[in-house]
Specification:
2 strands, 3 helices, about 110 residues, mainly alpha
Length: about 110
């Protein structure tokens, strides 16, 4: 089996000359081209698949954060209790256990809870 490749002659831009490839070049061409194509297709598939998965995870995390916060803020918003809203906002922003314990202690001692 012999393969031919089209090349352009440097002297005449319009003339096409068929060049015969050797066995080694033929095998390399026949193995590398499908390998590169399959690699690109699989890489694209897994990249898109991971992107969609990360988008779903981000949506779930947002829902996990927003639903309890909405439940906690419903009553203070309806009754317009600004002190409680401020405390919840600070707790949400700091998001550390030490600061959370201090704020809960402050809320209990000032009868905000």
């Amino acid at each position: 089996m012999s393969m031919y490749i089209l090349t352009f002659n440097k002297n005449d831009n319009n003339a096409q000359i068929m060049t015969k490839l050797g066995l080694r070049d033929s095998v390399l061409t026949l193995t590398l081209i499908p390998t590169v194509i399959i690699g690109l297709l699989l890489g694209g598939y897994f990249t898109i698949n991971r992107y969609i998965e990360l988008d779903e995870i981000l949506y779930q995390q947002g829902t996990t954060i927003s639903e309890p916060l909405a439940i906690a803020l419903e009553q203070p918003l309806l009754e317009k209790i600004k002190n409680y809203l401020t405390v919840l906002f600070v707790i949400h922003i700091t998001n550390t256990h030490q600061r959370l314990n201090q704020l809960l202690f402050l809320m209990i001692t000032t009868n905000l809870l």
